[in-house]
Amino acid sequence: MTFSQSDLDHIIQLAHLDVSAALKEKFLPQIQSILTHMESINQFDLTHVSPAATAFSVDMALRDDVVVPQSDLRLVENAPAWADHSFVVPRIL
Amino acid sequence: MTTWRSSAVELGKAFRNRSVKVADVVAGLWAHHDQVEPQVKSYLTTFQSESLAQAQALDIQFDRGDALSLLAGIPIAIKDNIHVSGVPTTCASQILKGFIPSFNATVTDRLQAQQVIVTGKTNLDEFAMGSSTENSSFHTSLNPWDTSRVPGGSSGGSAAAVAAGQVVVSLGSDTGGSIRQPAAFCGVVGMKPTYGRVSRYGLVAFASSLDQIGPFSRTVEDAALVLEAISGVDTHDATSSPRRSESYYSNLKPTVAGLKIGVPKELFGSEIEPGVKAQVVAALDLLKANGATWEEIAMPSLKEAVTTYYIIAPAEASANLSRFDGVRYGYRDSEADNLRDMFRRSRGGGFGPEVKRRIIIGTYVLSSGYYDAYYTKAQKLRSLIVRDFAQAFEKYDVIMTPTTPSVAFKLGEHESNPLAMYLADIATIPVNMAGLPAISVPCGLDQGLPVGLQIIGPAFGDQQILNVAAGFQELSQFPTRFQSPVMRSAQ
């Protein structure tokens, strides 16, 4: 499975990442090498093996669905921009 | 004499019988810290004046005979991806520079309820992605045994601080070995509890199915004491186990005689440096001479655990790190003129190279057309790893391996080859994939640098591996045998 420059550009776009041309040049052979190494998992016959999302199932520790009052100010004190009970962002389109 | 060099258990007793004051210990600790921090660079933030004030207040409580916990007054450092309310959590990333959480992690709450003294936040690889702290966007921590070498990672600051004597115990997080590998490199005890044993609430997520918080210490007793304090169910973390938490410290019972030990040959071959292997064999033979038995066993899936990990962990990370977009918290690029541009530029400007590389790999293995080829296969292989461990524990009480294939490597040694850095986690990663508890204890020196012995137990066998580690500690006396030059050099 080859990982090309256009694959890299496509994935960077999907991931909403800005990556400099110099870093892309460095990443391409590194990621190709890592993905080639990953192909070693094909040596195992996994046809009848079920995938595991976690190592073992645990009973979920759930809490009561109760509203806990919180101050808007505490929740947004780390926001880069906040006004009128809203996060302020640049134009969408 | 009990001083800042002493263990938490020794200090706790001395605080109680008033043979030493908390304030004197904390002042002594900071005096030592000021001498050695420029050499080791363990911390990102310190709380010197706050900790001294807290120590004085605790002395008043001890003087009047208040019933305080065994951890009251014990200095503890916390990895900077675990929230302490009101002080910065950076994850060693520019994207979180200036971020101040408004709540405590559950582990912080539990430790503060026992009146520990939090000394500061320790350095790490950015978002816990790395094995050396070289991926920290602030600085690289250095190994107290040899400052031309890395302390390991990602919890390198927490390990180095304990090994250098800057703090008595510390907390780290372990996704693929990030507690055990730096513990081995720095010659201290480091434990990853069973997945679900300790709440992850307030730990900034890297790979949610693998992350677990655990302690660093210089003795097994101290690791048990801290684990006892931080473990247990938490309704803020649905994956925390409802199993009753145990009294790991009071139930500690050194165990060696009659122990059946399996040693996976896949983690004991040519990938392990001869000097490391020799020290681990010597440790296994010491246990054997005292009534244990050990033999090599086959666990074929373990050879592919690293590959499996470097598919699953980046996949989970790429999803977890999508929340850092410059909208609600963290760095925002102010030049962007539309929302998409702001996401891209904020993430591009805030994340470092290793984090970007892992987001790219994770996004790729989850993308249409590649999901089954990589991610589903990796999850299937994970089932085989779990099965191999389960079969091994039918016959053996514990599994032992070298914690790392080599001793601490030189700064910059793996800089241009991330794959070589990833393969350094060959012995620790399988444990996370299977959700098991494991502890690394110092077992010898190679080239004058510490070697770690990893003891792996069955799920929720946390007490069992602590008991075995305590048994090995009794036989080897490692806390007094292996002290870093930085700690030994203190006046």
Provide a quick synopsis of the model.
The complex is a heterodimer of chains A (93) and B (491). Chain A has 93 residues and is mostly helical.
Description of the structure:
The complex is a heterodimer of chains A (93) and B (491). Chain A is mainly alpha-helical. Chain A has a domain at 1-42: Histone, subunit A (Orthogonal Bundle). Chain A contains three helices and two strands. Chain A has helices at residues 5-14, 21-38, 72-76, and strands at residues 82-83, 86-87. Chain A has a two-stranded antiparallel ribbon with strand order 1-2. In chain A, a hairpin with a 2-residue loop joins strand 1 (82-83) and strand 2. The longest helix of chain A has 18 residues, at 21-38. Chain B is of the alpha/beta class. In chain B, strand 2, helix 4 and strand 3 form a beta-alpha-beta unit. Chain B is globular and about 65 Å long. Chain B has two domains: 8-266 and 280-298 and 387-488, Amidase signature (AS) domain (Amidase signature (AS) enzymes, Alpha-Beta Complex), CATH 3.90.1300; 313-377, no CATH class. In chain B, helix 2 runs antiparallel to helix 3 (48-63) and helix 9 packs across helix 12 (371-395). Chain B is built from 17 helices and eleven strands. The mean pLDDT of chain B is 96. Helices cover 40% and strands 13% of the residues of chain B. The interface between A and B is large, with 56 and 77 residues.
Observed structural traits:
heterodimer; A: 93 residues; mainly alpha; Histone, subunit A; two-stranded antiparallel sheet; 3 helices; 35% helix; flat; B: 491 residues; alpha/beta; Amidase signature (AS) enzymes; 2 domains; eleven-stranded mixed sheet; 17 helices; 40% helix
